[in-house]
Design goal:
The chain has 120 residues and is α+β, with helices and mostly antiparallel strands. It has a single domain, classed as Glutaredoxin, CATH 3.40.30. Helices cover 37% and strands 15% of the residues. It contains 5 helices and 4 strands. A 4-stranded mixed sheet has the order 2-1-3-4. Strand 1, helix 1 and strand 2 form a beta-alpha-beta unit. The chain is globular, with a radius of gyration of 14 Å.
Length: 120
């Protein structure tokens, strides 16, 4: 599988799911680039584009428990732009890992979802 174009994995390195994804990709010989968005925060335009490629809204990738702890609830009236801004300011609220390949992306939860990108 080493002939696949490189994947970009947007991650938090201490995340168990992110580590499982790395193990899966390495076992299958898939080259990938890692972006630690906790150290290199995603610009709003980049996050917006990743979500567009994945067919997700900002609210879809909001970590529920952490969001509640931050005072964000599903019915609080925040717009997608407000949620996106919150995710940029507080990247720990972002579901992970997000994997990008060309014009497609997936939220790799469970990690096997990355195979959707590898097939096409």
């Amino acid at each position: 599988m080493a002939d696949h174009p490189i994947l970009t994995v947007y991650e938090k390195p201490t995340c168990t799911t992110c580590r499982r994804l790395h193990d899966l990709l390495e076992a299958e010989g898939v080259p990938f680039e890692r972006v630690n968005y906790m150290v290199e925060p995603l610009p709003p335009a980049t996050l917006r584009e990743l979500l567009r490629k994945a067919g997700l809204s900002p609210r879809d990738v909001l970590r529920e428990r952490e969001a509640r702890e931050a005072g964000v609830t599903p019915d609080d009236g925040r717009s997608d732009d407000d949620i996106l801004e919150l995710l940029v300011e507080r990247p720990e609220l972002l579901q992970r890992p997000i994997v990008e390949k060309g014009d497609r992306a997936v939220l790799a939860r469970p990690v096997e979802r990355v195979r959707e990108l590898l097939r096409g």
